[in-house]
Amino acid sequence: MGTRNEIAALPPEADLARADSLAREIFSDIANKWAFLIVEFLGQRTMRFGELRDHIGGISHKMLTQNLRMLEHNGLIERTVHPTIPPRVEYALTEAGVALRAVVDGMCGWTQKYLGHIEAARRRG
Amino acid sequence: MGTRNEIAALPPEADLARADSLAREIFSDIANKWAFLIVEFLGQRTMRFGELRDHIGGISHKMLTQNLRMLEHNGLIERTVHPTIPPRVEYALTEAGVALRAVVDGMCGWTQKYLGHIEAARRRG
DNA sequence: CGGTATCCACCATGATACTG
DNA sequence: CAGTATCATGGTGGATACCG
Asked: HTH hxlR-type domain spans which residues (chains A, B) (predicted)?
């Protein structure tokens, strides 16, 4: 996506949204704020469970676990357990995760770019 | 916020995630499946309420209304009422919405590209 | 430290009905 | 056709506690 031209010709991908149910299911799973934030932070570097929780902020232990499991199940992140005491568990993006990171970064960039626009819209309506 | 980033050259956008609460709030509002699907379909063309509902599929009247209001409130879509009988209401993307569409398209493309990868991951784990 | 399980409050959501 | 309101209800997600 990144530098692909505007809206010009944006074909097949478009109908993914209504396409087969598996694609739709995956799309719905991953298009949520926690998944995006996790991908964003793991995109910066590999992190441990606690680091991730602290960086994200405002996420409960349970939600983080749940989303990490979901992302792992879908092959976006890889979980490495170091059998030390205390345990050390590292999470890293897979290739698919890195690819998604580009999308999430696009969204981050979008948010920054249109922050003013949005504030203005809110004041109006 | 830190304008320096540890990784290659994925700039400031990265720390938006933890940046000011307004950006975070907007990010969290919009990073959800319904918002994405609405943006995706309105990106194809302007649509009426019912059309949108039918194209998206599986969304309740209430959820659609709610999300449309949220997107309008944030200045991503524009609502035009034609005072006919029966009423005709058209929804279209604003400039900000069109820009977000690029992101959503990226996500659609990603989903298609990694569908096989994901299926494989699911079978394994 | 990280994971799992349990409990429970609350809210998001769907269904339904009514209005303009 | 589109919007709003109301209601119930089940599921989401937070808090807590305990395990490895």
From this structure: 19-119
pTM of this structure: 0.88
User: Could you please report the per-residue DSSP string of A76-118?
Assistant: SEEEEEE--SS-EEEEEE-HHHHHHHHHHHHHHHHHHHHHHHH
Sign, CA dihedral A112-B101-A4-A41, equals positive
Express each pLDDT in A3-40 by its tens digit. Answer: 344 334 444 444 555 457 899 999 999 999 999 999 99
Token pair 């995109």 in the structure block, residue: A43
Question: Best mutation site among B21, B25, B27 for testing chain A: the one with the most A CBs within 10 Å?
Answer: B27
The highest-level CATH class for domain A32-124 is mainly alpha
Q: Are A94 and B114 in contact (CB under 8 A)?
A: no
CA A61 to C1' C8, in angstroms, rounded, equals: 17
Per-residue pLDDT tens for A88-102? 999 999 999 999 999
Q: Which two tokens stand for residue A48?
A: 């441990």
Please give the backbone phi and psi of residue B89, each rounded to the nearest 5 degrees, phi first. -120, 125
- Where are chain B's structural domains? 1-31, 32-124
Nearest to B63 by CA among B75, B49, B74, B79: B49
Asked if the Cβ–Cβ distance from A110 to B120 is below 8 Å, we say no
